[in-house]
Design a protein that fits this description.
The chain is mostly beta strands. It has four domains: about 70 residues, no CATH class; about 200 residues, Carboxypeptidase-like, regulatory domain (Immunoglobulin-like, Sandwich), CATH 2.60.40; about 110 residues, Immunoglobulin-like; about 100 residues, Carboxypeptidase-like, regulatory domain (Immunoglobulin-like, Sandwich), CATH 2.60.40. The chain is built from two helices and 40 strands. The strands form ten sheets. Strands 39-38-35-36-37-34-40 form a seven-stranded mixed β-sheet, with no helix packed on it. Strands 4, 5, 6, 8, 11 and 12 form a six-stranded antiparallel β-sheet that branches. The radius of gyration is 28 Å and the shape is globular. It starts with about 40 loop residues before the first strand and ends in a 7-residue tail after the last strand.
Length: about 500
């Protein structure tokens, strides 16, 4: 709650008082009430077990009441048995939620449940979403000083299985978790002969909080691991035959990562050596075309003589976050007066890069022969070639109308310039004007051929996936944009039910 602004003795406005939180418990019918002096506005937050927290803000007419709707959460439960129908206790089941981020389907870090003595598992309080379920076998990291802890060995293990019985995520069923409902998902697993991987993390004494995991592509397989934190000796248990990337990592102080290629066939893999690295420096430079340079202060000048704003830091976005066993993002890289920037200690992975251009458009972004705009940049154990970003003035404008939205409904518009495999999207919002039309505008666009899509804001569209967009090609509007050009377009919104 907030109070009205008062004046001090000199007639100057006093700063508003800090909001005072008040709490109330709803009655049997869900009603609540607060008594507050001279309210200007209120933010209501509601919580209840089994529901997502509700939130609503009101700036006036508080006496009429503020109604908040709560969305119930979901549940997934099931049972894990072997080929004979016997329960499998103590195995790990992972739930991996899928979320849309910058037009790509991204996987959130998995939540893990362990089966009980009856082979039963349960996930609860799930936000309505799409999820994969993965049976990840027996897991656990056992660390000791001066000697690797003993871990009960087993001659059999269960390979990774996605629900209902798929060997990989591409063949798995994507489950929809509805609000307030319980899904049932059972697994039946077949045991395979298992082996161990033995090796050493080199220079282990220089790092803290060591870990080891097996990767299949960008996904962690999940195995029991024992590590001698002094010598770096490790063993990975319950490994079924296959080809893997073994990752060793440290999460103490600075993050370090090392990888080794391992093939397990008909016997244990031994003598694996992994060297940790805190990452490599990735350098870049921004050049400007179509402007002038003020030698006195090294600031760029637009053609009209006005100084251009300084370039904001460049952001790196990890496209396959599952490949790095830590959370968080790469810190932005500041740009100096000469346009140079450096990402320090960038860990292996595939990255996309973003920057604000202030009246210029990105003509190109390359690292050697790699088109970074279209394909991203793969960072490995050695620094890639310098990223060269070319900015140019003279961009064009596309504006238009979105049809097919409900009255007052906000729309999202994607302008996708054809380039590489996935295109280069520009995202803007469409708003209704006083005449009742949903209009959008986007300026400073690179010349080229565009496909324009629109959909209701809040609806998820995988616009960085050409195959997913192909289903909506009938809704796309084609635009050819020239330097300093301006184009008008009308685009029909993708229907909600199409998703």
């Amino acid at each position: 709650m907030q109070s009205q602004v008062e004046q001090d003795g000199g007639g100057n406005p006093k700063p508003p008082a800090a909001p005072v939180p008040r709490r109330a418990i709803t009655d049997e019918s869900g009603k609540y009430s607060f008594t507050v002096p001279e309210p200007m506005g209120a933010i209501i937050q509601v919580s209840h077990s089994g529901y997502l927290n509700g939130f609503k803000q009101a700036l006036k007419d508080l006496a009429q009441g503020i109604n908040v709707s709560l969305v119930p959460t979901g549940v997934i439960e099931g049972r894990v048995v072997n080929g004979d129908g016997d329960p499998l206790p103590g195995v790990s089941v992972e739930m991996i939620q899928v979320q849309m981020q910058d037009g790509r389907k991204m996987l959130r870090p998995p939540q893990t449940a362990h089966t009980n003595d009856l082979g039963e598992y349960r996930f609860w309080n799930i936000t309505p979403s799409s999820v994969y379920l993965k049976m990840a076998g027996y897991q656990g990291t056992y660390t000791g000083v001066g000697g690797a802890p003993a871990v009960a060995n087993s001659s059999e293990a269960f390979p990774t299985v996605y629900y209902p019985a798929a060997a990989d995520r591409e063949s798995a069923t994507l489950l929809k978790v509805p609000a307030g409902q319980t899904l049932r998902a059972d697994f039946s697993l077949t045991a395979h002969k298992s082996f161990r991987i033995r090796g050493v993390i080199q220079d282990a004494g220089s790092y803290k909080n060591l870990g080891v995991r097996l990767m299949n592509g960008e996904e962690a397989v999940g195995n029991r691991v024992s590590i001698n934190s002094t010598s770096g000796a490790f063993q990975v248990y319950d490994v079924t035959p296959g080809t893997y990337t073994l990752q060793a990592f440290s999460r103490g102080g600075s993050v370090a990562l090392g990888e080794a290629h391992v093939v397990v066939d008909a016997e244990d893999a031994t003598g694996v050596k992994v060297a940790l690295s805190t990452g490599v420096d990735v350098h870049g430079v921004i050049e400007h075309l179509g402007g002038e340079q003020d030698s006195a202060n090294q600031r760029r000048l637009f053609p009209n003589g006005r100084p251009a704003p300084a370039i904001q830091p460049v952001q790196a976005i990890l496209l396959e976050p599952g490949r790095i066993p830590v959370t968080g993002t790469q810190p932005p890289a500041p740009v100096d007066a000469d346009g140079h920037f450096t990402f320090k200690e960038m860990l292996p992975g595939k990255y996309d890069f973003k920057l604000n251009t202030f009246g210029e458009y990105i003509e190109s972004m390359r690292s050697g022969t790699i088109d970074v705009l279209a394909d991203g940049l793969e960072v490995g154990s050695a620094s890639p070639e310098e990223i060269r970003v070319t900015l140019r003035r003279g961009g064009g404008r596309i504006q238009g109308v979105v049809t097919g939205l409900r009255p007052g409904e906000q729309g999202t518009v994607a302008l996708i310039r054809a380039s590489g495999l996935s295109g280069i999207p520009t995202i803007v919002q469409a708003f209704f004007d006083p005449g009742g039309e949903a209009r959008f505008f986007s300026g400073n666009l690179a010349p080229g051929e565009y496909q324009v899509y629109a959909w209701p804001t809040g609806q998820e569209v995988e616009y960085r996936n050409p195959q997913a967009l192909r289903a909506f090609s009938g809704n796309a509007a084609a635009v050819s944009l020239h330097e300093n050009g301006e184009e008008q377009v009308s685009v029909k919104a993708i229907a909600t039910e199409a998703q």
